[in-house]
Amino acid sequence: MKSHYLLLFLFFSCIFSSKAEKEDAFTFSHTPTEMRSRFAMLDDVRILANGLLQLGHGLKDFVHKTKGQINEIFNKLNIFDRSFYDLSLQTNEIKVEEEQLKRTTTILQANNQEIKNMSLQIYSKINEILNDRSHLETKLGGLEEKLNGLTHSLPQASELKEMSSLKNVIDSQDKNIQDLLKVVGEQHNQLDHQKNQIKDLEEKLGDGVFYENAEKSFSSKQGDEPRTMQYLPNNTTNKTSEKTGLPADCSDIYNRGVKTSGVYPIKPNQSEPFNVYCEMTEEAGWTVIQHRTDGSVDFDQPWEKYEHGFGDLEKEFWLGLEKIYSISQQRPFILHIDLADWKKEQRFMEYTFTLEGREQDYTLHLSQVAGELPDSMSNHTGMRFSTKDRDNDNKEDSNCAENYSGGWWFNACGDTNLNGRYIRARSKARLDRRRGIYWKPGKGSSYSLMSTKIKIRPRDLESFN
């Protein structure tokens, strides 16, 4: 635009200069000076023409540039219109589904009320039958008294006929009562089913609560099938993350000001949200990935269980290989192991820790940084995870997980195994000890363990502050 203004200025300057030269020309005689003035005017016209030409080119470029910008704006408007249209279609679909759920809930509530009315009617009939039965039993008692008075004489035929008819009536009433009780039981089962359906639909229609902060505890005994740890729904939120999103791990929760240990939801990168148990200490928040305390959960599980996780987060559990992998991929981590023997003496070990993904069968890499026991985990670094139905150990003629129980990063059979069978009393049999929970350094004696806890946190805590 500045070049356009400059050209206009030169245009008007040329016009004024030509006029001034014409006025000066009249003051001189009509000699060769007049010829020079005419040539000067031609030069001015030429300059003016060049200026107008440049001005035209500038205006042409400006028009093309403006046209391109307008086309770009129209394209963005078209994209916005399509996005708005798609959003309106999705909104309509959600509204239709919500209306269908509401109609279904209304129908179920009406059926529930109808069943309740039927139950009341059935109970009323049962009461009438019971009253009739009591009346008949009274009559039967009177007949029995008459029979006792006729011990030395034969009863009359009419009395025998009346007794027989009364017994038939009583048997018929008993059968009716049993049938009605069976119908009442079926009605009760149907009522419970309807109530569960209504509760599920009301939970789907409600918008206020999307998850519970802590999983409910459940009781499981050694040998029972442990509960698999599931992922949370995508719309899971909690009070501490309404504005900033779910935390990535327990250290993130600790840095948000939460200092109480417990079960919390997290969402590591490239993962669905899930619950974890956070152990909060004075200096950091630890994410617990394994805990053994009392043998309430059977750790002799197949690959699928070890991959997804199992147990009770507030008691004994294994968090799951895919969850541990999703947490550890975010940054370098420290792995901390707490151990307690049957004399209740406690020790710990710490390692730098990385874990490879599913394609590498969750290969483990460790390097010791601290500890109070001889190192036994260095023999497991670089090993793939093994279970009784997926053998990845270095023992060609044997499956260590199947022979010694539990899933672990076995190198050779007889190594350290913190997921072995929980043996309450220290066994004298060598095979029983090897199938239990134990810590075995490369040299020296092994340690039979009463409890273990494996937890992780980021290596550089200052990066979170």
TrEMBL record:
InterPro entries: FIB_ANG-like, Fibrinogen-like_C, Fibrinogen_a/b/g_C_1, Fibrinogen_a/b/g_C_dom
Organism: Acipenser oxyrinchus oxyrinchus
CC per GO annotation: cell surface; extracellular region; lamellipodium
Region: Disordered, residue numbers: 217-244, 377-398
Domain Fibrinogen C-terminal, chain residue ranges per copy: 241-460
Subunit details: Interacts with ANGPTL8. Interacts with ITGB3.
Signal peptide location: 1-20
A GO biological-process term: phospholipid homeostasis
Chain intervals with Basic and acidic residues compositional bias: 386-398
Subcellular location: Cell projection, Lamellipodium; Secreted
Name under which the protein is recorded: Angiopoietin-related protein 3
